[in-house]
Amino acid sequence: MPTVEGSFGSKAVITIPAGQPSGQFVIKTLSEGDRQTVSKGDWVTVNYSAKDWTTGKELKSSYDADGKPQLFQAGSGQLVPAFDQAVVGKKVGSRILVVAPPAAAFGDQGNTTLGVAPGDTVVFVLDITEALPQDSTLSGTMTQAPPTSPQVKDNGKAAPTITIPPGQAPPTDLQQFVLIKGEGKQVQTGQTLVVQYTGVLWSNGQQFDSSWSHGGAQALQVGTKSLIEGWDKGLVGQTVGSRVMLVVPPALGYKDQAQGAVPANSTLVFVIDILEAV
C-alpha cells in the first residue's frame, strides 16, 4: 500500500511500494473531517495530489502553482470513479487515499493532460474541502433594494419571490444589488461558480428560469462569455456567500433575440446565491 506524508490542505508526498499494484480499487480515509457527510449529487470541491504507480512519475496536482481544485457532483459519473465514487459517504475535511486501477482511473485511453499512459494505475490523495447539496441556499437578513427597484421575498428552499415595482420603467444600465453580503473569497474571471438562481421578466414579473425548477444548484463558468454579459459583469468581483440581484437590460441579456420564454428586448431580473467559486 502506498504511504502518504503531509496533512490536509497541503500537497501530499506519496511513496509507492516495491512491486506491482494488486489491481484492487482501494479507498482509505487517512484523516477524517468533522463536517457533513458527502451525499450522492452534492457539489464537491476537492484538492488532489497524484502519482502514477506504473511509472513512479509524480503527476500534476491542484496544489501546484497553476493548479486548481476539482469541482464535480459526487456519484454522478462526471469524473472517473477515483474521484466520483471515492468521496461519497466521506466527511468534508477528510483526506482520502485512492488507489485506482485502470478501470477506476483512465482505462485504455490514459490521460495525456496528466501524463498517464493507457492501462496505468494511479494513486490519488483527495482533500475534500466543501460539499453543497443541490438544495443549498443562503440565509440571513436581506438588505432590500430601493423601492423603485424589484423587491425580493425569501422562500427558504424554494425560488424567491421577485416583485417588480409598479409603474417603473426598466433601467437602461446594469443594476447590481447585494442583498446578503458573503464573507467568502472574491469571484474571479474564469472561475466555476455553484449558484442557485431565479430569473423573472421586468415586463410582467413572470418567472422564466430557476435552478429550483431543474435540479437545484448549478455550476456555471463566469467571465468567459458562456453566460449573458450581465452575469459576467455583475458576478465577477462579488464574494462567495452573497445573494445578489441583477437587473439586466436587453443589451446585456438576449438583446433583440427571443430566448425560450424570454421575448426579444426583455429586461431581466435575477436573484443569485453564490455558493462556491473554484
UniProtKB/TrEMBL annotation:
Query: Which Pfam family is one of those matched by this entry?
Result: FKBP_C
Reaction(s) this enzyme catalyzes, per UniProt: [protein]-peptidylproline (omega=180) = [protein]-peptidylproline (omega=0)
What GO molecular function terms would the record report?
Answer: peptidyl-prolyl cis-trans isomerase activity
Q: Where is this region: Disordered?
A: 137-156
Q: Kindly indicate whether the keyword Isomerase belongs to this entry.
A: yes
| Polar residues: bias regions | 137-152
Q: Does the keyword Aminoacyl-tRNA synthetase apply?
A: no
Broad EC category = isomerase
Q: What is its EC number?
A: 5.2.1.8
Provide the transmembrane region boundaries.
Answer: none
Provide the PPIase FKBP-type domain boundaries: 41-132, 190-278
Arranged from A to Z, the UniProt key words for this protein are:
Isomerase, Rotamase
Stored PANTHER family: 39 KDA FK506-BINDING NUCLEAR PROTEIN (PTHR43811:SF19), FKBP-TYPE PEPTIDYL-PROLYL CIS-TRANS ISOMERASE FKPA (PTHR43811)
For this chain, the family text in UniProt reads: Belongs to the FKBP-type PPIase family.
Q: What is this protein called?
A: Peptidyl-prolyl cis-trans isomerase
Q: State which gene encodes it.
A: fkbP
